[in-house]
């Protein structure tokens, strides 16, 4: 019962991204998604943005005959995604709290024009970014490192798949 309910939710909110050998194609959300989910475990599912982190939910595909290298790559991708989700959820929560506090403090100023309010809000945004500059810089460097570390495993998986493909044609 819960499997059918979750499959129904997938049909409504996920898109299938096909990535055979590095090619990216996007399929639209439609009712035929259930057959794509049941028949093939080679495609990642991309869902709607998370309400706090604003990152899209990703259901990473797991092949039935997944090799050790493919499994390691998938696990590294999942760990990287989880790390990004955690960072942005905390960051956006902090931003929303700061903005709410700013707006509550501004609530008492009635004689203010819309232009003045917009100017003050832009100052708030800049101050928030300035205060979090080092945090953003640290995140960005970590993000670069994590993604750079995915290059070699991705390359080895690509070579492994190409080798299997060529060997399969020669038989």
Automatic annotation (TrEMBL):
InterPro entries linked to this entry: COA8
GO-annotated cellular components: mitochondrial inner membrane
Protein name: Uncharacterized protein
Family assignment from sequence similarity: Belongs to the COA8 family.
Listed Pfam families: COA8 (PF10231)
Localization terms from the record: Mitochondrion inner membrane
Membrane topology: Peripheral membrane protein
Source superkingdom: Eukaryota
UniProt keyword list: Membrane, Mitochondrion, Mitochondrion inner membrane, Transit peptide
GO biological process: intrinsic apoptotic signaling pathway
Main location: mitochondrion
């Amino acid at each position: 019962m819960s499997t059918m309910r979750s499959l129904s939710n997938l049909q409504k909110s996920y898109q299938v991204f096909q990535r055979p050998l590095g090619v990216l194609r996007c399929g639209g959300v439609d009712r035929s998604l259930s057959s794509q989910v049941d028949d093939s475990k080679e495609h990642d599912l991309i869902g709607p943005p998370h309400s706090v982190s604003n990152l899209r939910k990703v259901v990473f595909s797991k092949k039935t005959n997944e090799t050790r290298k493919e499994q390691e790559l998938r696990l590294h991708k999942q760990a990287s995604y989880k790390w990004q989700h955690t960072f942005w959820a905390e960051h956006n929560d902090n931003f929303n709290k700061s903005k709410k506090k700013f707006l509550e403090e501004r609530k008492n100023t009635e004689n203010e024009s819309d232009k003045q309010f917009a100017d003050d809000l832009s100052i708030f945004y800049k101050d928030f970014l300035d205060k979090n500059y080092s945090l953003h810089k640290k995140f960005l460097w970590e993000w670069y490192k994590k993604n750079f570390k995915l290059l070699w495993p991705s390359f080895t998986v690509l070579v492994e798949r190409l080798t299997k493909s060529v060997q399969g044609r020669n038989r």
